[in-house]
Amino acid sequence: MPVDDSPTAFACNMDVALQGKKCTYEGTPGAASAADNTQLAAESAERACGDVRADLRAQCASDTAAAARTSACTLEGKARLADERGLLSPDARGCVDALRAALSKHLIVEDPFPPTRK
Amino acid sequence: MKTIALVLLCAACAGAPLEPVATSPTKLAPAPRSFDARSWVGDYVNAAECETAARRLHNDEPQPGWEALKACVEKQYPRGSFTYLNLVTGGFWDEDLQTRPDAARLVARIIALRGGDVEGDLPAAQKCRAPVFSLAAALRQPDVYKGRWLVLRGRLADLRSEGNVHTALLNESALRSAEREVKVGRRFKQENESQHSAAGDVRSTRYGDAAAKGESSSSSKSTWSEVKSTWDNEKVVTGRQALGRLQQADPFLEPNKDFVFLARFDGVRNNDQGDEVAVVSISSYFEPGPLLIE
User: Fold this and answer.
1) Which residues of chain A does B148 touch, with a Cβ-Cβ cutoff of 8 Å?
2) Closest in B160, B269, B281 to A25, CB measured
3) Which residues of B4-27 are buried (b: 16+ CB within 10 A; e: fewer)?
4) Chains A, B: CB contacts under 8 A, how many?
5) Helix boundaries (H) for B128-205
6) pLDDT by residue (tens digit) across B67-83?
7) pLDDT digits (tens, 9 = 90+) for A9-24
8) How far apart are CA A46 and CA A58, in angstroms?
9) Chain A residues with CB-CB distance to B275 below 8 A
10) Is the pTM here over 0.80, yes or no?
């Protein structure tokens, strides 16, 4: 019987993975440049930093950009993080972990009930 | 005018070669008889008799015989469902189970009707080389099982839709027998309670006065009865997961409810924990029968 190799609805892209949602790495592995990998990681992380408290955003962007330049994300140019469809390949797991570690330092929840001033 | 037409007809006949005239009526090929399995199965009130009748029919006409067997399996009898996996996998139907495209569905259906013990029933189907396999085997050797039918028992953990792609995350479950003690017969209960107290007062001229007081109490309770060991079927989660493609989001596929799935194995993916998850295309699913048949 022919098999269906198309991605499922649980396929990870960088945004979904950085949100910490349950997903699977279904992208097709392939060759890429270290610069492309860093760019994808840094741009996605910067978007994720948008959820961080306003006064911590700049530091968040700086920390995640540094993580995006590590070998976990560049993959030393030997493999790509995501395929043409934006789906993360199994090689991207280390990068997601590194970016989430950098993000988590800044994810401080804003007080949902700030003190009211009279 | 009539004369002219007759002359023209005779002129046309003169040029045509003469064909031999058939002396007996032409035998026409029999039109394929449509077999109505639904009405055929109505004559049977017993699942085993129905299967035997399907065999008889199969001996003369294999296709209606197979349709009859399928109807036997789908029918609800006064004394329950069709649960005779041993009759189907006993040898007579082997060729059909090995070659017919709908054989995998029939096997999955019977396993569900028998209570959904996939681990217990699948070996019987495999003994007669019916091409149905387990999730465990597929995850161990993905390349060998790609494109093959899996029968798995599982429950829906999550359902996600991206555009027109609908995927169910399934947690595989299995049945295990667990021992339990059940009280039988008469029960006895004994309760004892006792309390003692004593007090003494001694007076003497030589040794002086002395007083002593003591108290004690005790209580005990005991119950006893005869117990008997029974075995229950417990559902356990195996830890194996599958992502099941669905044609559409199905409201009858309720979360945290066990189903027996028939699905084509498409391969393996890694999840965010680094664990392997099977990817399957769900063809059909059945609610397992409430009673487990061994």
Assistant:
1) 1
2) B269
3) eeeeeeeeeeeeeeeeeeeeeeee
4) 60
5) 135-140, 142-145
6) 999 999 999 999 889 99
7) 999 999 999 998 999 9
8) 9
9) none
10) no
